[in-house]
């Protein structure tokens, strides 16, 4: 476990960051190259982060050239990462 030296948003120091904050932070004895875009960080001893094998979400698709069906694997933008996600089961569609 590493000690967090500082937390900030746009170079302004913070005492605490919460969900949805885009932050920068510096950890003792951790190099920038060791943390990649899209990583989730937290306190593994006091409040470990759960791993999700799947999730259910609402997706809005605009002007797609072909029919989207189960098994479709688009690249989605999640925060600052680009991740390939497979649509296992499409439960409903609305055509507007």
TrEMBL record:
Residues 55-96 form the GTP-eEF1A C-terminal domain. Gene3D superfamilies: Translation factors. Coiled coil: none annotated. It holds the Pfam family GTP-eEF1A_C. The keyword GTP-binding applies. Keywords: Elongation factor, GTP-binding, Nucleotide-binding, Protein biosynthesis. One of its GO terms (molecular function) is translation elongation factor activity. InterPro entries: GTP-eEF1A_C (IPR054696), Transl_elong_EF1A/Init_IF2_C (IPR009001). SUPFAM superfamilies: EF-Tu/eEF-1alpha/eIF2-gamma C-terminal domain. It comes from the Eukaryota. This is Putative translation elongation factor-1 alpha.
């Amino acid at each position: 476990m590493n000690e967090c030296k500082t937390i900030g948003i746009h170079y302004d120091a913070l005492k605490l960051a919460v969900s949805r904050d885009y932050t920068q932070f510096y950890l003792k004895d951790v190099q920038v190259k060791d943390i990649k875009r899209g990583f989730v960080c937290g306190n593994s001893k006091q409040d470990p982060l759960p791993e999700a094998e799947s999730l259910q979400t609402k997706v809005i698709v605009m002007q797609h050239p072909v029919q989207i069906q189960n098994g479709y694997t688009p690249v989605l933008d999640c925060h600052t990462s680009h991740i390939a996600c497979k649509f296992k089961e499409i439960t409903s569609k609305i055509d507007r």
